[in-house]
């Protein structure tokens, strides 16, 4: 039986790429009975007929998966954050980073629209950039003419399945259009009243680019931390993984515990205070959420 990867899901069909060809497939009936839903990114075994249409027979084990958007087997996340129009919000970027870290993905941060900043704002953004780079994150510095930073971004795509995500209106579709001009993805201007754009993507699809696959992901602006438990949250912050080893208590959550090395590192300026404040906000959000049954 041939094997392949689902690269698009649309109108009840799963489009499976195998050996350079794409086959429209349906899922087996027993998937529904077992409450299994194929998603984009799944590696599958399938059967095809003389019309090159087929049925998915088996979904191979996933190394990770997202519910919103429905996608599996992602290697890295390209997180797009504009520094102006809409303005940069560290809390929002950190929320994306926590979700990505929880799935053990490698994040690449792309700052867009840097040419729209005045000198004082640029200096502040460079401080943010240095904080994220010090945590080991790859940061790509892009202007509103995204072509200027494409070469740096493109070499990170080869041999990876990448998810592209970010707040509405930050330039995700513009980046994809610039990487692959034949896409002609719809882009929207920022709403002046709301300060954000509208999602212009209607479905999840993996697109071949620079020797890799890239997903555009509608719905990813819903950033609830529903799948992360309190004791998992510190592991989603690289600096807390580093300093947390020196806390007095082995299961320290860096909140109200005494002799906490993380809180000491914040006081000493070794951990950025805005990152710790965002951590506390996520901590409270997870702690007060309603239990699921």
From TrEMBL:
Cofactor: Zn(2+)
CP-type G domain mapped to chain residues: 63-223
SUPFAM superfamilies: Nucleic acid-binding proteins, P-loop containing nucleoside triphosphate hydrolases
Keyword Hydrolase included in the entry's annotation: yes
InterPro entries linked to this entry: G_CP_dom (IPR030378), NA-bd_OB-fold (IPR012340), P-loop_NTPase (IPR027417), Ribosome_biogen_GTPase_RsgA (IPR004881), RsgA_GTPase_dom (IPR010914), RsgA_N (IPR031944)
Organism name: Pontibacillus salicampi
Function: One of several proteins that assist in the late maturation steps of the functional core of the 30S ribosomal subunit. Helps release RbfA from mature subunits. May play a role in the assembly of ribosomal proteins into the subunit. Circularly permuted GTPase that catalyzes slow GTP hydrolysis, GTPase activity is stimulated by the 30S ribosomal subunit.
Residues of the EngC GTPase domain: 72-221
Superkingdom of origin: Bacteria
Keyword entries, A-Z: Cytoplasm, GTP-binding, Hydrolase, Metal-binding, Nucleotide-binding, Ribosome biogenesis, RNA-binding, rRNA-binding, Zinc
Binding site for Zn(2+): 247, 252, 254, 260
Keyword match Nucleotide-binding: yes
CDD domains found in the cross-reference section: S1_YloQ_GTPase, YjeQ_EngC
Protein name listed in UniProt: Small ribosomal subunit biogenesis GTPase RsgA
Cofactor binding note: Binds 1 zinc ion per subunit.
Enzyme Commission number: 3.6.1.-
Protein family: Belongs to the TRAFAC class YlqF/YawG GTPase family. RsgA subfamily.
Top EC class, one word: hydrolase
Residues holding GTP: 112-115, 166-174
Compartments reported by the entry: Cytoplasm
Main location (coarse class): cytoplasm
Subunit relationships: Monomer. Associates with 30S ribosomal subunit, binds 16S rRNA.
């Amino acid at each position: 039986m041939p094997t392949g990867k689902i690269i698009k899901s649309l109108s009840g069909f799963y489009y499976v790429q195998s050996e350079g060809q794409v086959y429209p497939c349906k899922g087996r009936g027993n998937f529904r009975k077992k409450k299994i839903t194929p998603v984009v990114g799944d590696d599958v075994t399938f059967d095809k007929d003389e019309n090159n249409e087929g049925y998915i027979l088996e979904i191979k084990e996933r190394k990770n998966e997202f519910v919103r958007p429905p996608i599996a087997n992602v290697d890295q996340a390209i997180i797009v954050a504009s520094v102006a129009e809409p303005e940069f919000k560290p809390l929002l970027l950190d929320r994306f980073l926590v979700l990505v870290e929880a799935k053990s993905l490698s994040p690449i941060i792309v700052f867009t629209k840097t040419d729209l900043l005045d000198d004082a704002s640029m200096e502040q953004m460079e401080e943010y950039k240095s904080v994220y780079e010090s945590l080991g994150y790859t940061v790509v510095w892009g202007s509103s003419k995204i072509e200027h930073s494409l070469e740096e971004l493109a070499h990170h795509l080869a041999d990876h399945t990448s998810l592209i995500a970010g707040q509405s209106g930050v330039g995700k579709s513009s980046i994809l259009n610039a990487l692959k001009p034949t896409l002609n993805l719809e882009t929207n201007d920022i709403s002046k009243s709301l300060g954000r754009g509208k999602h212009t993507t209607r479905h999840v699809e993996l697109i071949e680019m620079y020797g890799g696959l890239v997903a555009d992901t509608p719905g990813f602006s819903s950033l609830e931390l529903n799948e992360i438990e309190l004791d998992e949250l510190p592991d989603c912050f690289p600096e807390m993984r580093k300093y947390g080893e020196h806390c007095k208590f082995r299961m320290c959550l860096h909140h109200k515990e005494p002799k906490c090395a993380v809180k000491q590192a914040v006081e000493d300026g070794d951990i950025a205070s805005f990152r710790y404040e965002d951590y506390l906000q996520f901590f409270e959000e997870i702690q007060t959420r309603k239990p699921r049954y």
